[in-house]
Amino acid sequence: MPWFVWLLAAAAFGAAEFFTLTLVFGLLAGAALVTAVVAGVGIGLLGQLVAFGVAAAAGLLIVRPVALRQMASAPLTREGSDALIGRRAEVTEEVTATRGLIKVSGEEWSARALDESLVIPVGALVDVMEIEGATAVVYPRELLP
Fold first, then answer.
1. Is the pLDDT of residue 74 over 80?
2. Cα separation of 136 and 99, whole Å?
3. Residue 113 pLDDT level (bands cut at 50, 70, 90)
4. Reduced to 3 states, what is the DSSP secondary structure of residue 26?
5. Which of 58, 86, 106, 135 is the most exposed place for a label (fewest CB within 10 A)?
6. With 60 as the cut, is the pLDDT of residue 144 above it?
7. Rounded CA gap, 103 and 92, in Å?
8. Vertex 18 angle, CA 16 and 22, to 5°
9. What's residue 138's pLDDT?
10. Cβ–Cβ < 8 Å for 59, 27
11. What are φ and ψ of residue 78, in 5° steps?
12. What are 128's strand-pairing partners?
């Protein structure tokens, strides 16, 4: 089969992938491109079919599961207020179970203590344990295990 037929097949598989987003047709498009190169070198129809089968099998059995796992995993970087979780902060106004202020990453945030029985004095270092709306929930660093 001529190489340009494999290019047309790759374009058709690529268009199908665009509409389905399953990674199957995209990998078949890649296999068709590999086969177009094989056909361009001058290898016969049997060699082209073997090349297509091997490239498609490798893509579907090796590349697709890895790609699906990567897409399903959470991103490694946190954005927005989630990026503050785990950061160290300094208390700028006494923090109690209901109110207080801290300075974290150069910004002032309203805060409350994770342990409702704690009163954290001004100047103490705390860790941001979670973010609830616009309030940082903090815990003193010296009490951490």
1. no
2. 10
3. very high
4. helix
5. 106
6. no
7. 6
8. 80
9. 96
10. yes
11. -95, 150
12. 138
d(CA 10, CA 34) in angstroms, rounded, equals: 9
Question: How many Å apart are CA 47 and CA 17, to the nearest integer?
Answer: 26
- CA 76/CA 6 separation, integer angstroms: 39
Q: Name the helix (H) or strand (E) containing 109.
A: strand 107-113
Q: Judge whether 90 and 117 are in contact, CB under 8 Å.
A: no
Max Cα-Cα span within the chain? 80
Cβ atoms 135, 85 nearer than 8 A: no
Closest CA to 107 of 81, 129, 143: 81
What percent of the chain is helix, strand and coil (3-state, nearest 5)?
Answer: 50, 25, 30
pTM: 0.55
Give the integer Cα–Cα distance in Å for 119 and 131: 19
* Angle at CA of residue 66, ends 20 and 49, nearest 5°: 65
In percent, the amount of the chain with pLDDT more than 90 equals 81
Report residue 98's pLDDT band, with 50, 70 and 90 as the boundaries: very high
Confidence of residue 72 (pLDDT cuts 50, 70, 90): confident
